[in-house]
Amino acid sequence: MGSLEQQENVFVNLLCSLRPSTLFNELLCAAQEEVKKSNHRISELKTTVYSGLAAAGWDRKLRNVIYHFLQAQSKLSKQSAFSTTGTDLIKEPISYIMKAQLAWEKKILKSLNSMCTELTIPLARARTEKDRKDMATRWTELGVDGPDLSQIRPVYAPKDFLDVVINLNNPNCVSSGNAGTFDLPWGLIHVSLKVKTLNELRIQYSDMAITHCQTGTDDLSDIPPELFENDRTKLGKKVLAANHAPITREFSKKGCPISMRAELWCQILGVELTKVDYLYYEQLKGYVLQHDLLVDSLLYKDVKLTATNDDQYFVFEDFLYQVLLPFSRDTVVLKHFAYNSATPPKSYIRGKLGMEDYAVTYPPNGVIPFHGFAMYVAPLCYLYNDIVQLYHVFRHMYMHYFFRLHSVSSHPQGIVALSLLFETLLQAEEPELFYHLKQVNCQPLKIAFKWLMRAFSGFLSSDQVLLLWDRILAFDSLEILPVLAVAIFSFRKTNLLKVQSMNTAEAVLADLFTLQVVPLLQLSLFSK
Amino acid sequence: MARIKFASDFDKSVLLNNFENRCWIQVGPEDDWNFYWAGVHNIRNVFSVESGFRLQDDQVINHFPNHVELTRKDLMVKNIKRYRKDLEKEGSPTAEKDELGRFVHLDFIPQTFMLPADYNLFVEEFRKNPNTTWIMKPCGKARGIGIFLVNKLSQLKKWSRDGKGNSFTPPTAKETYVISKYIDNPLLIGGKKFDLRLYVLVTSFRPLKCYMYRLGFCRFCTVKYNASLNELDNMFVHLTNVSIQKQGEDYNAIHGGKWTTQNLRLFLESTRGKEVSDKLFDEINWQTVHSLKAVAGVVSNDRHCFECYGYDIIIDDNLKPWLIEVNASPSLSATTSSDRIMKYRLISDVINIVIPPGELPDVRWSKIPDKENYGHFDLLYDEELANLDLNNPDLRAKTGTMSSAMRGNPRDIRKGSQATWK
């Protein structure tokens, strides 16, 4: 009976969240319009209004909203299966992992504060009128004369975060002392979490099987379009017209055709911009102009260190500032902390340290960027020429997926589980290779971690990153990242078996720009 | 087989590494070379009557004697104008004009006048549209030297006063300028202006045989594009030449402001759709072929010659490509490591098309290389093969009046017949 009760609960929640939405109002207005239409018989009023609304496409809109609502709900409820009470348990049910995350947050905050002290700059300060005007006029070319960044260092890099993940240890687990088994594995992750086996992944990713044609491989220019591309394009147009998120997801499992990707992703994520969204962005921009935050310098520095020097993304430098700076001011992002093991950092108004009434979230969105953060945005710049759309797609991507790649959590999509999945898969599929690398002191995760943490952005060529992210969105899972990492190790196996040091191993895996991700994924998932 | 002897006027590593990797032997330009990568200045000596030089059957060289017909700004414009007029006289459908009198298919260079020769024509045009900006370029110079923008007639008058020391001598190439309508609505990416550098290989003008290189690139301005007039003096905004941009503060040595055409295509297809991006690249191919046809009659088609041109193209925000100029010796210095790799491949692919692998150069050869030897080149047009196709009525029906002669590659043929290739 519990499940029925749960269903009822979900239903009540859904109605509660729908009632104040704009869609609800719009629906009401549309229904009234429909009623006003003449020649309705009173006895059939209900059915004619329903069919009228459906004919005008309202049922599809409603269905999409319900779909996205249920998606969001599942994020909140998956982990609460452990227990029925307590937000902390939704955030992270395992206490030693939660502790590690808290300690990590403390460390980040400390280094942020010490940077402030060293450089004698405040975390935030109001801009002068002149600064404000100057920044407003330069808004679309912020890259030209940025602030002085010579003193600014990224707060942390993937390497620092890897140390945290490696040092996680279950205090309840007593090692049996047998190397290679679950409690003393070859790899670096010593947390026992359940991760999928290759067979389970095969079932999950069955749409990518070699027997299915894939966009990005089977529609290349040297293949006659009659074989696949023509039908795929035709189907894609139908899917776009239907505009129903579950269908779009299903279609995208075989990859998005380049010219349809931007719209398909919006449908999957439920990004449909209204005037309000544009106003909202303008408001965020206003906040950026009002205050100068230390985080701005960190974001600036990150763009300068990554995208500006990247021959695929440098042209989008200015777009990145226009997305990242408003993002740091966006309090909607705080919502995701309900299901993120991380907690937004608090800062206190000067002189009121520790007094909760004077606490503010810092930065306003609660996210402190790390070295490489800008690369979550960079590939999206290929898809959206409109800043506001780019902004919203990025925010959705972040709140759905990317936050998991830099918080310590036991969630099956979290970076710890992904790292573990990488290690167990590699150990199972390429034991010889894993053993060799371990013997010469090149733990594979030490190389692969940065790929996972950045979702491969900046490591693959731009078109390939987008094909990879197609699968993240379509299968609604980050597990494709460790699968690809394993595939890359397998693919370069011959050379990796010859390496004797970390440097040479890194050299073998330094250039991934020639790789085609889809055939690689197929090879590693389905060829054995 | 005897090893190939090469001579080179450049000690650029992308050239020399290629020759060395093929185990060729270096000789001087005066010796019996088989393959000479010459500078444009030396090409006149090689072909001049006084030099008494006669090229042998096993000698090839990287320039046509009078390539200037294509690569000097004024001559290119003159030849294209004449070509269009000739086609119009013939009543060719490619010379169709719209109701405003512009060529529908052949309007691919910005409106241009020769100065001082066409000064009066220019003034007439300027008065019609006084609010347009024009760009002045000296005919005989490259790499952005001597270029300036004009939006008032007075600026031009000042220039002509300063320039005319002696009005009795006719102007030489160095003193001749072309003035072209400035493309003031360029396509911007990330808010930045760019132009395209594409490489085109010609192995023969009669019959025309030409190839387009797939690894061209976009060159970006480091400074934000701003159409306002007070920026007219900031040449960084307007010129994308690397040699100019390199002097700018924001020049980045890692990517050098260069972005691959694959990235451009990914961006355009994602944000504007497949059809318009396909059309853009079709149009670029189309105008390249016609720019070459325009000079095919005047270039002396020496069998010993081939040439690799650098095409500079600007795309406007309606995704229309404009041919700006053609360079006879595109820079072979590498600015970044990927640039070095690309240019090394370019030279390697050029050699494989010009000389059948494993053989000595032979000018009696048909100049129809195997498709495997194209490397990163695509065959743009082979007049000889096109004529063969035309004699075959089935093919003629398929490809229309102008066959693109792209053999074996179904996608290219499809592309050719679909859009502008009518």
TrEMBL record, chain A:
- Alphabetized InterPro entries for the sequence: Rab-GAP-TBC_dom, Rab-GAP_TBC_sf, TBC1D19
Gene3D superfamilies per the record? Answer: Ypt/Rab-GAP domain of gyp1p, domain 3
Tell me which residues make up the Rab-GAP TBC domain: 255-476
Q: Which PANTHER family match?
A: TBC1 DOMAIN FAMILY MEMBER 19
What's the name of the protein? Rab-GAP TBC domain-containing protein
TrEMBL record, chain B:
Gene3D superfamilies in UniProt: ATP-grasp fold, B domain
Where can this protein be found? Answer: Cytoplasm, Cytoskeleton, Cilium basal body
Region: Disordered, residue numbers: 398-422
Q: Quickly give the catalysed reaction.
A: (L-glutamyl)(n)-gamma-L-glutamyl-L-glutamyl-[protein] + L-glutamate + ATP = (L-glutamyl)(n+1)-gamma-L-glutamyl-L-glutamyl-[protein] + ADP + phosphate + H(+)
PROSITE patterns for this protein: TTL
Keyword Cytoplasm belongs to the record: yes
Q: Which UniProt keywords apply?
A: ATP-binding, Cell projection, Cilium, Cytoplasm, Cytoskeleton, Ligase, Microtubule, Nucleotide-binding
Q: How does it assemble?
A: Part of the neuronal tubulin polyglutamylase complex which contains TPGS1, TPGS2, TTLL1, LRRC49 and NICN1. Interacts with PCM1, CSTPP1 and LRRC49.
- Name-wise, this protein is Polyglutamylase complex subunit TTLL1
Q: Which organism is it from?
A: Lymnaea stagnalis
